[in-house]
Amino acid sequence: MPTSPDPVPESAALSPNPPLPSAAEANAALRAFASGRTSWTPSALAELDRLRSTWQAAVRREIVRAA
Question: Which residue range forms the structural domain that includes residue 31?
Answer without folding.
Answer: 20-66
